[in-house]
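Format notes (please read before filing issues)

Several people have asked whether sequences and structure tokens are stored in separate files. They are not. Every record keeps both together, in the order shown below: the sequence lines, then the token lines. Line labels are part of the format and must not be stripped during preprocessing.
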Amino acid sequence: MSSASSRRAAGIAALAAEVHACRRCPRLVAWREAEAADPPKRYRGQDYWARPVSGFGDPAARILIVGLAPAAHGANRTGRMFTGDRSGEWLYAALHRAGLANQATFERVDDGLRLRDTYITAVVRCAPPANKPTPVERDNCLPYLERELELLDRARVVVALGKFGWDGFLKAAASIGVATPRPKPRFGHGAEASIDDRLTLLGCFHPSQQNTFTGKLTVPMIDAVFARAKELAARSR
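Then the structure lines:
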């Protein structure tokens, strides 16, 4: 492993330890722990992670995926981003089809899933009630995303899953001195924005059930986004 790779891996591991211990937002701490203490029947008897969830993937990734927050009975249960819920089924299946994941199945942190040239994170690291963090909760969490952006220095493409991920990434990037466009680029599925002549921001509807069950997001639509992400990332070799 090169010195740069070792530095990234060590930095990400140190950041993950900080994330896992975070208790900055009393409402989110109470919610994530309450949901773990009284889970749905299908998850009764399972040990819940019930802590903030760190990013996951390849420290040398050129593709960064930014979501909203862990799901109460998904990542809040399993401890890994987009693992254990329907959104993850869509996301990891798409990554596998794109050659960015070694398998489409995902169940728990030790299931053998590995990402290729891809790293997954979120704007908020605790499961929020109704999937709606407050602006204060978002801002409490943004420093973690800011540090990931600094550590993941090979990233060339950012795929924002939903408007919250789009806006959160732009806010975090601006906070660390990245030149972001003005006026702020508008989110949309398939939208593209050039960031600081180094990154391209791509928009993708979030693979939530309200989008996938209604047909707002289809398999060809999500596959097109990751095909474009791979195309852009390949130009940076």
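For reference, the curators noted about this record: The chain has one domain: 3-234. The CA atoms of residues 74 and 84 lie 4 Å apart.
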